[in-house]
């Protein structure tokens, strides 16, 4: 019966091509608008490290005082003295300090120009904490951190430029005139949102190609290439900067269990209380230890534009469905005589429901195909509304293709429910008598 009802539906749609076209366009445009904005929202609100997001925690600590804070929220980053003190305490399974730097990669070939690359100064725990995927070798060790060793991890794209994609572990890399030993090569890794460096990237960035030990970067006085906030002038020189209350470092900790997370929070609060008793702080401890998704939510990583546009586009889809309901109602009720004859010949209301819902589903499929085409066009134009780092995340992948078709079909069936119900209520006797 399905094929029979499908044939009836297609024949009916061909009889009214203008009406059919209007319904397909209404479904297609409504679905395309909602799926285009959903693709952006999905990309910006996803869990960047789902396998461990509940175990990774960012630490915040108020070293400025309540009068310099917004809504009582501690600063986004930590000062050097606080970050290094908390790292030395080893109160977590793994911990790492991170800050962005800029380095010039000097090729061995003197005829080639230096390559400016984004980089991070970080710790050995960075790589196992964040499940960074390695293609060659491994990260450096905790012993390398303690020795302030000149070691480096590079990304695949840089390895391709410098070593033609070959084996480079153990080779030397010249960064700003200093030699580093390569310990590993990773994939071009940049989880989106870039959760471990939200203060400097807003959550969206192409990632780094070079990673060097934090202690070695401090020894070489490599400046912070990201945001730097100070409540007072730190004074001249690197040493004064390190001793200042300027905030520029991110501290992340891996805490696998709730008990460990609670214990760590208590330690951070105790540390802040110690600073208060020592006279450094004149205010009560104000600390936050948040997991990945909570941190992203508090930092408002999902652009407001994507949230607003998603709501507006869903409203537009609802308007399109209302129009489709009206068109389907007009179309189905014009066929009351046909329905009456079918009912008189023995068709049940269930049969009428099946026939007209299948016809509506056919409209949904056609609307879904049109919606897919328009969604593809919409994704190409996302850059006109959103910043480039966000716009490039919106893609028409198989999941979105399937979702677009499903939404179109479901939307058309929802729109057809009331007109179909009205059609099923047609009384055969009235139609036979009137005709």
How many structurally independent domains? 2
Number of beta-strand segments? 10
Biggest beta-sheet profile: 6 strands, mixed, barrel
How much strand content do the residues show?
A: 5-15%
* Low-pLDDT residue spans: none
Strand order of the largest sheet: 2-3-8-5-7-6
Percent range of helical residues: 40-55%
Q: What is the gyration radius calculated from CA atoms?
A: 31 Å
N- and C-termini, Cα separation: 28 Å
Protein name: Peptide ABC transporter permease
InterPro entries: ABC3_permease_C (IPR003838), MacB_PCD (IPR025857), Macrolide_Exporter_MacB (IPR050250)
Domain ABC3 transporter permease C-terminal: 311-428
Pfam family, one: FtsX
Would you give an account of this structure?
A hairpin with an 8-residue loop joins β2 and β3. This protein has 435 residues and is α+β, with helices and mostly antiparallel strands. The protein has 17 helices and ten strands. α2 crosses α14. The protein has two domains: 178 residues, no CATH class; 150 residues, no CATH class. It has a six-stranded mixed β-barrel. The mean pLDDT is 88. It is a multi-pass membrane protein. InterPro entries: ABC3_permease_C, MacB_PCD, Macrolide_Exporter_MacB. It is found in: Cell membrane. Keywords: Cell membrane, Membrane, Transmembrane, Transmembrane helix. This is Peptide ABC transporter permease.
